[in-house]
Amino acid sequence: TGKSKTIAGIVLKLLPKLGNKKILLCAPSNNACDELTRRILHQFDELEEDYKGKVVRLACQPPDDHRLCEHFLDFMVMATQSLEADSLLPFRFGCAKVIMVGDPQQLPPCVLSQAGKEYNLSQSLYLRLYSILNDVENINSPVSMLRVQYRMHPEICQWPSEFFYNNRLLTHPTIVTRLEEFPLKPLYFYNIAISQHEQDSASSSMNRTETSHIRKFCTHLILYLYNYEQLDQDDSTNSDTDSLSSSSSDDESVFLNLSDPIIIQIQQRIAVITPYRAQVRHLRSQLPNHIEIGTVDAFQGKEKDIVIISCVRSGGSIGFLEDSRRLNVMLTRSKYAMYLFGNFTKLSEQNREWNALIQNARGRNLFENIGFLAPKLPFK
């Protein structure tokens, strides 16, 4: 919904009015700080403004030093993932202006201690205040919802908007124009009902069958996009482009020159995310080096042109996939396309949210059973 872009815009409006003060931006992770930094610098470059030394002290947590609070206007981003105790630190030193940005439908702070969970330490200050103030029905309500998203293809946005946001999340018209030339379907589900997950020595889950299918899919995808870009540069006819759809084979890795700069650029447009660290490690051992691979939790606040999801679990408890907030994060990271791999037969039997998602995909003809077969690219 453009949270980072909105924050960057607020920063630009505040800076000329602050005199000698600066803005302190805080986020709960290095990834979130890095993403916010990129957005702000991009805004500065667009406006050709020079605020060197003026902005912005980025930090992973609010300050615990009163001297910082005297010189900075506090600003918190991704506040839904900040521990409540950390978020209270600025108030200790008399901080009077705090802007919290977050999404109550996404992941809360990570608390591993069982005692901490029992005492509800995983609740953020943002969520506590949101639950109190969101029902205030007047023009001066301190809660504002960003209703227009600037990231996802509308085909990707449709189900999260319906299920998590009561159809209030809308796609900006420019997104359709920007993404219309992408040659593949923006959303597709590959059901691998024969897959079985296993656990490593740290009791984290992995699924070798999914990794194998994703490796083949990534090879096909990279080669296709490489050829597509080459044809586009050569201004070729539609018949040439159509011929690419039948060029996939299991031996395509032979034709990939992984040191080719264009191949590297294509890889850098792709992310593979999964709920489990063991699956992250296994995927990294099998996929090209320039594809970003990480957990769903670590990817909150980030985005990629193409996101591939490895669900892993296949029978028994569905573990991390039970959390609807994690599902929401998982489904809202991609810009151009999102492709899901998993045992959706089992997942739809075990969880209400997953069943609704799979039925929606089936009804939109975005679902395919692949079993042992290599996945084919989802051409439009």
TrEMBL record:
GO terms for molecular function: helicase activity; transcription termination site sequence-specific DNA binding. Residues 123-343 form the DNA2/NAM7 helicase-like C-terminal domain. Pfam families: AAA_11, AAA_12. Signal peptide: none annotated. The lineage of its organism: Eukaryota, Metazoa, Spiralia, Gnathifera, Rotifera. This is RNA helicase. One of its GO terms (cellular component) is nuclear body. Residues 1-60, 79-114 form the DNA2/NAM7 helicase helicase domain. GO terms for biological process: termination of RNA polymerase II transcription. It comes from the Eukaryota.
